[in-house]
Amino acid sequence: MKILIVLHKSYSLPVISPVYQPIQVGDLKTIDQSYYRDNTGDNISVKNKTFCELTALYWAWKNMNTDILGLCHYRRYLGNGCVWKKKQERLLKEQDITSLLRSSDIILPRKRHYWIETRESQYVHAHHAKDLQVTEMVLQEKYPSFLPAWRHTLASRSGHICNMFITRHELFSEYCSWLFDILFEVEKRLDISSYSENDQRVFGFLGERLLDVWVETKQLRYVETPVINLEKQKWIKKGALFIQRKFHKTNG
């Protein structure tokens, strides 16, 4: 079992269990010699600015062969509901993961709810509508059986985000094969040369939506766990940005 902790800068990582292993993404100076690097072996490290944590996902797919694989972030982890415990004590341990996967196919973060808009309108207000349009075209051509779940996902008001999950190697490999086949084709067709630095992270954003599409279409049994953020959340700032995007940003 290996759960990769994706990071791009020096950070005081929590001590959890040996199954967690940091992986440094991008072509930056080495942070720690003991960390995995996404620019070794078969990799797409050069795409990190547009694929975000998915370059670590690709690296794990191509270079790891453990029975159970997962992905989390240096400050965000899958955890349990024991709210009376300290944050670091709530992060999933090996025995927790093993137990959860006995009755489910995949462990996902608890859904984020958007309440006042759909996942499609939220994306369009925050990024570019053509990202979704091109992705739908690719799905129509390559994986039409996934279109109902794609449209259902966009119409929903909640979803699993952050590209965080834990599953068995067979499903992990199957998902990555499907996901990157789609994203690489979208990448060929989508001109992002005029995008802002944030909007250029488009393939990471699309990956978040496509994970739910895959889970729904494959009818996987999933279990949700809380997302444990080791940093304080700036909810007022997040809320202000949400409103600003909704009423002031218009993208094609």
Please write out the topology.
Blueprint: E1 2-7, E2 20-24, E3 36-37, H1 48-51, H2 54-63, E4 68-73, E5 76-78, H3 94-100, E6 106-109, E7 112-113, H4 119-126, H5 129-142, H6 147-155, E8 158-159, E9 165-168, H7 169-189, H8 202-217, E10 222-225, E11 227-229, H9 235-248
Parallel strand pairs: 1-2, 1-4, 2-3, 6-10
Antiparallel strand pairs: 4-9, 5-11, 6-9, 7-8
Helix pairs in contact: 4-9, 5-7, 6-8, 7-8
What does this protein look like?
The chain has 252 residues and is an alpha/beta fold. The protein has a single domain (2-248), classed as Spore Coat Polysaccharide Biosynthesis Protein SpsA, Chain A, CATH 3.90.550. It has 9 helices and 11 strands. The chain has helices at residues 48-51, 54-63, 94-100, 119-126, 129-142, 147-155, 169-189, 202-217, 235-248, and strands spanning 2-7, 20-24, 36-37, 68-73, 76-78, 106-109, 112-113, 158-159, 165-168, 222-225, 227-229. The strands form 3 sheets. The chain has a 7-stranded mixed β-sheet with strand order 3-2-1-4-9-6-10. Strands 5-11 form a two-stranded antiparallel ribbon. Helix 4 crosses helix 9.
Measured between the Cα atoms of the first and last residue, the distance is 43 Å
Q: Give the SSE string.
A: EEEHHEEHEEHHHEEHHEEH
Q: What can be said about the biggest beta sheet?
A: 7 strands, mixed
Summarize model confidence as the mean pLDDT: 92
Q: Class in CATH?
A: Alpha Beta
In percent terms, what proportion of residues is strand?
A: 15-25%
Count of DSSP strands: 11
Extract low-pLDDT stretches.
Answer: 235-240
Our count of helices gives 9
**Anisotropy-based shape:** globular
CATH third-level topology:
Spore Coat Polysaccharide Biosynthesis Protein SpsA, Chain A
Annotated CATH architecture: Alpha-Beta Complex
Structural class category: alpha/beta
Spatial ordering of strands, largest sheet: 3-2-1-4-9-6-10
Instruction: Provide the helix percentage.
Output: 40-55%
Rg on CA atoms, Å: 18 Å
Number of domain units? 1
